[in-house]
Amino acid sequence: MTAPASAPATVPYRVYKPASRIGLGRWLLPAYVIIAFTLLLIPIVYTFVFSFNDANRSNISWNGFTLENWQNICAHPDVCTAFGNSLIVGAVSTVAATALGTAIAIALVRYRFRGRTGTSLLLFMPMATPEVVMGAGLAAQFLTMGVAKGLGTIIIAHTMFCLSFVVVTVRARVLSLDPALEEAGRDLYASPREVFWRITFPLLLPGIVAAALLSFSLSFDDFIITYFTSGNVQTFPVFIYVAAQRGIPPQANVIASAVFIIAIAATLIYQVISAQRAKRLRQR
Fold it and tell me: Which one, of 50, 52, 45, lies nearest residue 67 by Cα?
């Protein structure tokens, strides 16, 4: 009688542990991030610190700490005038570009018409065109038409180059909408106007707000196109460029620091509200 075959010997399971070693890739990304943030924050820290500088004729060297610059921002009158011009240009061009861009984005997505492809191409061209080319072209066009450069020409120029960014942002939001929602509204005997204001517009509102914020930031920060189309009017970036040759006044540093602080505070508030809203939705 044949003896049963013996069971194979079991091999004990061993957990593989990689050899501990210090790799270059493990530290390269954190080091790169730290260096990048440091280089980005140095100008911001410099601006904030020198907003407290007791400057006499120039704000290049540190002369002492003072709160006078924050208490009397308009001690240098050109600073407040330039800042006010930037706010006016940014607000008006943002409203115009957002209204036109939203309508164009809806038309490009929802309707078929002759020249639709050419219109899309023309709208994307300002985003790919260098600002110096666009600024020089607008300046030559205003000169040919005999239009005096000033606040109006700046608003027209800013509306033109912000329009492309608004169309791209809102168009992406329109593409994400479900047409069945609007069809349901029409099935419930809602007029086209009611469908737009009660269904389409609320769904598009996040994209419209994002496009408006982007448009305002681009307009407020623009220098090249503004420099070509401003004439004797100075916006805040143009004022900074001119004043940098002899030392930026500390009041300009105050405004720049205040804008940065407000932007950071608004971002943090939005993040807190979004986190609380998401927490409430999870608890339901």
Answer: 52
